[in-house]
Structure formats: C-alpha cells, structure tokens
C-alpha cells in the first residue's frame, strides 16, 4: 500500500477520535523506584556490557502486594513507557517491575547480536522478581514486540499468567509493506550495522497529544535501529507466529481497533491456535496501538487486574 494510503488511514482515525477521546490522565512523570537486575544468563558471544546490571523500574511495595507483574516493552520503547500502567497497578496491590531490553532505553549502547539476548533478559528479570515477591503470583505483560518476547519466554518460565497488549506477530501491511521488509532483510544480510528508521511515528502510537509531545522529546526512545536487530526481530516473530504452542498458564490478549502498526488479523489467528488452561481476549474499537497511553487504560487495568487477582486466588485455593 502506498504512503498516501497510510496517510488517509491516519487522517480518518484522527477524525474518528476527535469526539471519541475520553478525559483521562496519562501522566508520565516518573514515580518509579530504580533498581538494577544482576545478570545470571550465560553471555552471548560478541555481546558487550555483560557485567552491568539491567536497569529497571518498580512501582509498589513487594511485601504488601497481592500479585506482581513483569512488564516487557516494545520496539523503540523502554521501561519508562510503562509509568502510567505501573502507577495504576500499584494502587490495586500489584507490584510492577519493568526493565530496559538490550538495545533500548539506558541500554541503547549495548549491542544486540541475537534474539536470545532478549529472552535472557526476561529470564533474569523474572528470577529477580520471583526472589523479590516470594511465592506470590507473577504475571508477564508484554506490549507489541514485548508480547513476542513474553510468549517465547514461556519455555523457561511458568508465570501465573501471560498478558499481551497489541502483540506484534506481524506488521500492519500499510506501514510495513513488502518493499520495506525486503529492503531491511537485504540490508541486514549485507550491511547489518546499517541504521534503519522504523516506518511509523508517534502519530500512530497514541491519540493523546500530550503523550505524543512527551514521546517526541524522549531521549531514551529509539526509532532508528541497526538492521541486524530487525532481522533478529523477524526471526523471533516467525517463531512465535508459526509454532503451535501449548502454554502452561492462562492468556489474556488486548487489541486496539484503530491499529496501524501491527496486524490484528494475524494476532487473532495466532491467539486462536494457542492452547492454554484459560484464554480471554478484549478488543477496544476506539483505542490506538500503545494501550498504556490510551484513554481506555483505566478500563483495561480494571479488566486485567480482576483477571489476575482471580487467577491468583484460584492458585492459592489449589495449593
């Protein structure tokens, strides 16, 4: 699809949301506590900065929580993008931990050589969180690319549940046309260190103008990445999308109706193939891609927190 078609889609979405937007405070002023997660996974050959702790943020008090959430951010983002969500989980008695994945946030200078590094990060963060909250239920929540990492991590972790926000099983065809994918793949194979600019902007991430302004001035955001990283993401995406998977934990998926970054049809197909003790999904027709920035956030958190705490109670009754 041509660029003008993408612009037409976005124009229609903007018009739709002028009257649909709801008053809600998506305040991204940091309130989190900053922590460092020691690395336990075996270093990947060629990786750097292995000795440095993984930078992370927490919301809430671990001893007082009823459950915990491990938050995995998406492509170009970092742990600070979960500020509004972390704050809301905190007041519901859910301790939240978000960390910067390799290549993003405070780790933008740390090279990604293979997708396994993202999975190792999550495993290390999960073990840190388990030690922090003890035997309380832990849920992994992944946004977009982070949902793929979270899903793949289920091989080595057994959380009480998995939550996926706008999972990135495939790019929206209007934003990630075949020409972009082919060019990126060839560049990654021939000149893997070449910078590639992501084909979307903050205008597609959120409908909130204040959040857009914050994102546009976010020094830790990374909208240009090495071609090698996108190739590793493609490998991760294909594995997550095409592999039939039986999960040990319940799954909850949220999708946005005004979506121009990921392909919801592919997400629905992947979700339908998943086999889990319990599956639930919720679609917000008026929402945009990054749901933690959307006016539906309070409704989303109410649904998610009730689901998490219900599963937590069931596990306590069984034990």
Oligomer: single chain
Tell me the number of helical segments per DSSP (H or I, 4 or more residues long): 10
Tell me the fraction of residues in β-strands, as a range.
15-25%
- The SSE string, one letter per element, is HEEEHEHEHEHEHHEHEHEH
Envelope shape: globular
What percent of the residues sit in helical stretches (DSSP H or I)?
25-40%
In CATH, the architecture is 3-Layer(aba) Sandwich
Q: How many separate structural domains?
A: 1
Corresponding CATH superfamily: Alpha/Beta hydrolase fold, catalytic domain
* Alpha-carbon distance between the two ends: 53 Å
Q: What's the rounded overall pLDDT mean?
A: 91
Instruction: Count the E strands.
Output: 10
Strand order of the largest sheet: 1-2-4-3-5-6-9-10
Instruction: Indicate the structural class.
Output: alpha/beta
What is the C-level CATH assignment? Alpha Beta
Largest sheet: 8 strands, mixed
Low-confidence stretches: 1-6, 12-22
CATH topology term = Rossmann fold
What's the alpha carbon Rg, rounded to whole Å? Answer: 19 Å
């Amino acid at each position: 699809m041509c660029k003008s078609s993408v612009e037409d889609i976005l124009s229609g979405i903007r018009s739709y949301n002028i009257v649909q937007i709801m008053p809600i405070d998506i305040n991204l002023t940091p309130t989190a506590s900053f922590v460092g997660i020691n690395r336990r996974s075996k270093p990947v050959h060629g990786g750097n900065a292995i000795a440095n702790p993984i930078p992370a943020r927490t919301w809430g008090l671990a001893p007082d929580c009823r459950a915990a959430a491990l938050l995995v951010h998406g492509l170009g983002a970092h742990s600070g993008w979960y500020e509004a969500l972390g704050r809301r989980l905190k007041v519901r008695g859910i301790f939240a931990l978000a960390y910067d994945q390799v290549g993003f946030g405070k780790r933008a200078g740390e090279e990604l050589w293979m997708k396994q590094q993202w999975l190792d990060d999550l495993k290390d963060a999960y073990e840190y969180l388990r030690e922090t909250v003890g035997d309380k239920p832990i849920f992994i929540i992944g946004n977009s690319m982070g949902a793929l990492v979270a899903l793949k991590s289920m091989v080595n972790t057994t959380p009480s549940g998995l939550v996926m926000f706008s999972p990135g099983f495939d790019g929206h065809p209007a934003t990630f046309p075949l020409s972009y994918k082919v060019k990126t793949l060839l560049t990654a194979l021939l000149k893997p260190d070449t910078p590639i600019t992501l084909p979307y902007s903050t205008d597609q991430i959120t409908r909130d103008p204040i959040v857009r302004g914050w994102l546009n001035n976010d020094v830790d955001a990374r909208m240009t990445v090495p071609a090698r990283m996108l190739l590793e993401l493609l490998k991760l995406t294909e594995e997550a999308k095409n592999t039939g998977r039986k999960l040990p934990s319940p799954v909850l998926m949220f999708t946005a109706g005004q979506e121009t970054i990921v392909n919801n049809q592919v997400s629905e197909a992947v979700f339908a193939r998943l086999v889990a003790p319990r599956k639930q999904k919720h679609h917000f027709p008026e929402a945009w891609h990054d749901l933690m920035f959307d006016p539906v956030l309070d409704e989303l958190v109410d649904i998610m927190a009730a689901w998490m705490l219900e599963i937590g109670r069931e596990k306590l009754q069984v034990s």
